[in-house]
Design brief:
The protein has four helices and two strands. Strands 1-2 form a two-stranded antiparallel sheet. It starts with a helix and ends with a strand. It is mostly helical. It has one domain.
Length: 91
């Protein structure tokens, strides 16, 4: 079940969850655990590709943040621009 794996991605931050909520059309309560029944009722599995894209984006951003930390640059110093399916970062 790729959707479950994508939703368990530790790189997902609140901004990513907002995107997922928009995709699924449901506001998640952090105090309520996600379960298969809820995901099925929300038809989350029908949005697997979009959820996978958000999860992949979160992983990519996390990797970039790790690299920037190693070279001593905070993520906030970067200007990003999405061009087609690529994110270009400028300092």
């Amino acid at each position: 079940m790729p959707v479950i794996t994508d939703l368990r991605n530790p790189a997902l931050k609140p901004r990513h969850w907002l995107l997922i909520e928009d995709i699924i059309k449901h506001k998640f309560d952090p105090e309520v655990a996600l379960n298969l029944t809820l995901l099925h009722e929300l038809k989350a599995f029908e949005h697997g590709e979009a959820i996978q894209e958000v999860s992949g984006q979160a992983s990519s951003e996390s990797s970039l943040e790790s690299i920037l930390k190693k070279v001593g640059l905070p993520m906030s110093t970067m200007y990003t621009h999405r061009y087609q399916d690529t994110v270009v970062a400028f300092k």
